[in-house]
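Bumping my old thread because nobody answered last time. Still need a sequence for this structure:
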């Protein structure tokens, strides 16, 4: 593939184009296991830049992979066909905040935390912060339909996107949606862009509806000797009259990891659940918390602590917050990989799914734990394994396939929040088998030359272990 670097420099300026090997290496991977070198990294500053780049790329049939912070966990922004990585982080202006309309307009490269910092003086927030909000961009979270610990009450990115501007593969700029809270005007194309993972167009401006910041929050924590009892408590909470703002599970492997690596001295039980309620007043929140406490007790939850003191709450949540880091250091020689990392199942299946994850991990000689936003049905797992051993990759591949077969059979889905891209694609394609042809037709209508983030999702390889390069040194 021949790319005219000078032409790209004439569009965005020479400092915003790089084909230096060190830059290409940095942009060759994200938070997933995959790696592939781009041919060039280009950093547009505005919509016109993006249009010109796309016109050129489409004419020359050069692949273009949009990229936010590169925190995707399944190879989302890994350019497996080479070509241009389009780094959108420079387009990070907050264009408008309209408190009376409860909306804002932003460029795609603004981070979620920066956006919420800018909204705070207006008593407003964009309430779907992912744990990665310090770096994750608005464009990336919308393209992945991300969410996080607040999803049980506040939903996902899709619930807040009311309109957007998109540059299509051929460079045409289109405006989608409206500036109203509801819209019943034909196809909701802005919603089609949500979860499109950079395969349908470049999101260059977004209108988001906002919420008032809850003024008061209180948190609780409960221990369970049996995972199943925690599962029953979760189901009853989700079915109750209370909608918690957070409902998280940590399993025994996660507890061991936190005790071992961070000396957190958590009780060695099969499950801990952490819950939070929020609202505009103390009076609205405390009775809700009491309901959740009673439910936990009914299912043999013990050691129940509640607090509305911000410092104490930070302490209570610190185990959950530090879990990913603790898992990374859990076993000498084992790396923590984000494979099968965010499945979602019906709430009644949380405990069963967690057990299944443990059992499958054991059988395939890898360590798999279960934790996550159980209130919204999301279970995270990490696969801890010796990434230097070829046979461990085959173990992981089989474990991933088995857990997704289970998830599909109970009516769940391969991804609750992180998206599909490469590593989740084989199982997701089985789940969505009846709609793949339609998805491919939609992709073709948007991107006839297949230049936008090609070979992802419905077009991803069926065996990611052999068909993609891994970013680990594998022996044998
Ligand atoms: C430690 C850690 C914690 C995490 N916690 C969460 C969590 O709680 N919740 C959650 O949902 N996710 C979480 N993630 C995953 C990740 O942060 C999210 O998927 C996030 O949405 C990715 O944003 P990004 O800006 O990094 O996008 P990238 O990874 O750069 O890109 C993601 C996808 O979006 C596309 N894209 C990016 N920008 C645009 C654009 N402007 N137009 C069109 N397509 C675009 C890319 O091509 C790619 O397919 C976590 C990741 C890590 C490493």
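Sorry it took so long. Here it is:
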């Amino acid at each position: 593939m021949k790319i005219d670097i000078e032409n790209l420099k004439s569009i965005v300026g020479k400092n915003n184009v790089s084909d230096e090997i060190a830059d290409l290496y940095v942009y060759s991977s994200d938070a997933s296991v995959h790696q592939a070198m781009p041919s060039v990294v280009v950093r547009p500053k505005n919509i016109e830049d993006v249009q010109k780049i796309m016109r050129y790329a489409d004419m020359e049939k050069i692949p273009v992979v949009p990229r936010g912070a590169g925190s995707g966990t399944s190879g989302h922004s890994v350019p497996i066909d080479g070509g241009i990585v389009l780094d959108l982080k420079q387009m990070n202006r907050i264009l408008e905040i309209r408190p009376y309309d409860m909306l804002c307009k932003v460029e795609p490269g603004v981070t979620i935390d920066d956006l919420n910092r800018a909204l705070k003086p207006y008593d407003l927030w964009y309430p779907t912060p992912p744990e990665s909000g310090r770096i994750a961009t608005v464009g990336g979270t919308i393209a992945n339909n991300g969410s996080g610990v607040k999803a049980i009450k506040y939903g996902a990115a899709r619930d807040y996107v009311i309109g957007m501007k998109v540059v299509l593969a051929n460079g045409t700029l289109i405006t989608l949606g409206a500036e109203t809270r509801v819209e019943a005007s034909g196809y909701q194309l802005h919603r089609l862009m949500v979860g499109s993972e950079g395969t349908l167009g470049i999101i260059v401006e977004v209108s988001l509806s906002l919420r008032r910041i809850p003024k008061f929050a209180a948190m609780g924590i409960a221990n369970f000797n049996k995972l199943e009892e925690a599962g029953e408590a979760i189901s009853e909470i989700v079915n109750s009259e209370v909608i918690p703002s957070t409902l998280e599970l940590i399993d025994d492997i996660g507890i061991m990891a936190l005790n071992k690596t961070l000396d957190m001295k958590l009780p060695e039980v099969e499950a801990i659940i952490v819950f939070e309620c929020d609202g505009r007043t103390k009076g609205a929140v405390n009775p809700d918390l009491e309901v959740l406490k009673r439910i936990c007790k009914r299912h043999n939850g013990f050691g129940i602590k509640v607090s509305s003191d911000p410092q104490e709450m930070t302490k209570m949540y610190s185990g959950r917050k530090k879990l990913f880091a603790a898992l990374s250091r859990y076993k000498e020689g084992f790396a923590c990989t984000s494979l099968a990392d965010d499945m979602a199942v019906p709430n009644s299946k949380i405990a069963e799914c967690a057990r299944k994850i443990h059992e499958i991990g054991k059988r395939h000689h890898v360590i798999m734990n279960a934790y996550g936003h159980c209130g919204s049905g999301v279970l995270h797992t990490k696969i801890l394994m010796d990434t230097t051993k070829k046979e461990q990759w085959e173990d992981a591949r089989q474990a991933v396939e088995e857990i997704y077969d289970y998830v599909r059979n109970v009516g769940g889905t391969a991804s609750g929040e992180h998206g599909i891209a490469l590593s989740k694609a084989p199982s997701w394609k089985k789940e969505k088998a009846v709609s793949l042809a339609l998805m491919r037709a939609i992709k073709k209508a948007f991107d006839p030359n297949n230049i936008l983030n090609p070979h992802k999702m419905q077009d991803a390889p069926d065996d990611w272990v052999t068909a993609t390069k891994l970013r680990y040194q594998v022996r044998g």
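The radius of gyration is 22 Å. Let me know if any region looks off to you.
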